[in-house]
Amino acid sequence: MQQWSRVIQWVGILAVLGWTITAAQVQGLVNKGVICNQGIIKVKGVLQSSGQGSGKKEGIDNEEGILVVEGNAFVQQDSLLGRVEFVRDRDGFIQIIPSITYASVYFAGISRKIIDTSYHRALVALDTFVTRSQTQLELKPSYPIITLGRVRHNGWINPARLFGRVILLGDRWQQVDGKGIFRELELNNPQGAEVVNGGGFRITTILDLKRGIFQNTADSNFVLADGAWIRRTPDAQLAHTPIFAGKVSIEYYGNGALTTGPEIPHSDTVLQQLRIRTTGPVTADRSFTVNDTLWLENSLIMEPDPQLRFTLTYTPLFDPVFANRNAEIEGTLYRTNLKTGRLNRFNNWYTYVVFPAEEDRGAVRRMSVRVKPQTPPFPDQNPQMVERAFEVHAYDEAGDELDTGFALTFGYGWRVAPYDETQGLPVQNIVLQWWDGEQWKVIGKSDTARVDTPWAYGKARNVTALGYFALGPRGEVERIVVNMRVFLEGPYQRGGQMRLWLHQLGMLPRTPPNIYPYNLDPQRPFIRVDEIPDSVVDWIVVELRTLQSGGKRIFRTGFLRYDGTIVELDGKTPMRLEAGNYYIVVHHRNHLAVMTKQKVQIQPGVASIVDLTRAQFLYGGSNAAKVVDVGAGGYVYALIGGDVNGDGKVDRADYDGSPQSSWEQRNQEGYIEADSNLDGIVTTKDVNLNWNNRGRRSLVP
């Protein structure tokens, strides 16, 4: 077949059997052969072409050309490369657009552009997708526009409908800009996409973040219209808070866990629905408010770290939906609307509050419930309690906390599978208990608890006080005062006293730091004092063991006074411990731990005195500690100093063999483990103490 390279000006219909064209303007074009466009073809009327396109014997080869179409287009080939423009610009008219693959495709003009899906495939733009101002594209629900490259959108997608999806599906970084309107915009590009040139486009229905990061900024941002949704999987992120033009809803879905991000509005009135449908839990990165529906198929964690306590505020009158009974809100849920005579569900299906009548409700208008699974009850760890902590508060309309004037039923639940929080207690004996400031007391009238695997649950009626709740056996749980005495070698001075250097210098932290041994105590993050009491040398940890090695281990953190007594956080009261028979171990952050030789009976009516300054009471005898004085009763022993790294032995790593050693930390001031004599500064005195005790190790099994 002979081909010609020509410039063609045509006013009728051009039927082409085989042309190489550098420039042409035709009224219509019917191609039954092959056209190789190496310039510009402008088709003012209908474009019709059959064949396979580039590299084939029929169709339009447009790889090096520009094809401009003002009329309808009917193209059967799978792809049309190069640059293709659909530009019909007559009000009240339509333009049919082939749903095929393009390299670069441009849309302009006010005529409605209807994507023809006769061949049941999506329109794909490999390199560039552009719409001009006032251009309208109309899509069907099942056939999106797929873009693998640059997107510049200034037009409208389905202006009369709520659907019409554009998918960013590249395998390289994509850019998006323009002032147009998207109905549904989906990011499914692991390399991500960037909003550029100031952004400004609007999404009216859904922003669906499936894969990759959507890189928006304060300067290049986009608008989420009133009523729009953000959907996000664990494989995608949003870089910056979008511009919320009104209400917005959020759905988390897909495989895995995720942490919330800038998609969560900062305003208390913007977020309407929150749906959690991920296979793993969702962790909050801030406090926020839900004003419509809260739907949970997995857990929402509001306390990602012991130092971060966020609050979920929930304003609707109806309850959160626990679509999966295993789902729960870990942390604080604050409800601002409460019903009378019906359940008000809080952190899970089994945790609720009921006001039987209006007079029982009193002035209560709002309540907060904090639940921590697998956590000993705060503020006081107790081995005889279910391992689940509750904190409950009530408020009036003005937000002021109420202590009295109400009587409610409190429903509670705890897990028995896949982990068992029951701690071996008989379920039928477990009742609600309340912390009165000193000890746990039974409150209200608890029904017999039941098991509905993986939960156990019960309720207590006529609850008239709030604060810290726990679940424990019927009867009061009592702690016994135990008088304990121990010395530390580092700060010891003769006469049965230790120096108070750290207290005098104001270096003692008000919360025990996250280091050994304080991090042995699961209650450590909740231990705080407003000020360090007088006469305190340092923080200390007491451990109760049912066996010398292994068995149940209970940890309590308190203060060590100058006279060696171990006291509660008030700095005066001897430490109170759980009833039972235990070996007692004492831990300090840079001294070797010691343990009692025999079990200590801690029972009501039994005077419990533990003097660990005497070798005869120590496991390992005189080898377990160090003589520091001679008193009326003989030698006085103290915990051996110099275990800087808390590994149970004093060796080179403590005095000069590591960056944390006393030698490497010399001249440093503060609350530092390398400061073995506790004078607030690391000097050669500390190095000498380490060196003198080299080779010593704790004898605690």
Please explain how this structure is put together.
The longest helix is centred in the last third of the chain and has 9 residues, at 684-692. Residues 1-18 have low confidence and may be disordered. The termini are far apart. The protein contains 4 helices and 60 strands. With 701 residues, the protein is an all-beta fold. Strands 27, 29, 30, 32, 33, 35, 38, 39, 40, 42, 43 and 47 form a 12-stranded mixed β-sheet that branches. Strands 12-14-17-19-21-20-18-15 form an 8-stranded parallel beta barrel. Helix content is 3%, strand content 45%.
Secondary structure: elements and pairs:
Blueprint: E1 4-9, E2 13-26, E3 28-43, E4 47-49, E5 59-61, E6 66-69, E7 73-75, E8 79-86, E9 94-98, E10 101-107, E11 112-116, E12 123-131, E13 136-138, E14 145-147, E15 150-153, E16 156-157, E17 165-168, E18 174-177, E19 181-188, E20 193-195, E21 199-215, E22 221-224, E23 228-232, E24 236-238, E25 243-244, E26 248-254, E27 258-259, E28 271-278, E29 282-283, E30 288-290, E31 294-296, E32 300-301, E33 311-314, E34 321-322, E35 329-335, E36 344-345, E37 352-354, H1 358-361, E38 366-373, E39 388-395, E40 401-402, E41 408-415, E42 430-435, E43 440-442, E44 445-446, E45 450-452, E46 455-463, E47 467-473, E48 479-485, E49 492-493, E50 497-498, H2 501-504, E51 536-545, E52 553-561, E53 566-567, E54 576-578, E55 580-588, E56 591-595, E57 600-602, E58 608-611, E59 626-631, E60 634-638, H3 652-655, H4 684-692
Parallel strand pairs: 1-2, 2-3, 3-4, 3-5, 3-6, 4-7, 6-8, 8-10, 9-11, 10-12, 11-13, 12-14, 12-15, 13-16, 14-17, 15-18, 17-19, 18-20, 19-21, 20-21, 21-22, 21-23, 21-24, 22-25, 23-26, 26-28, 27-29, 28-31, 29-32, 30-33, 31-34, 32-35, 33-35, 48-58
Antiparallel strand pairs: 35-38, 36-37, 37-41, 38-39, 39-40, 39-47, 41-46, 42-43, 42-47, 44-46, 45-46, 48-54, 49-50, 51-52, 51-55, 52-53, 55-56, 55-57, 59-60
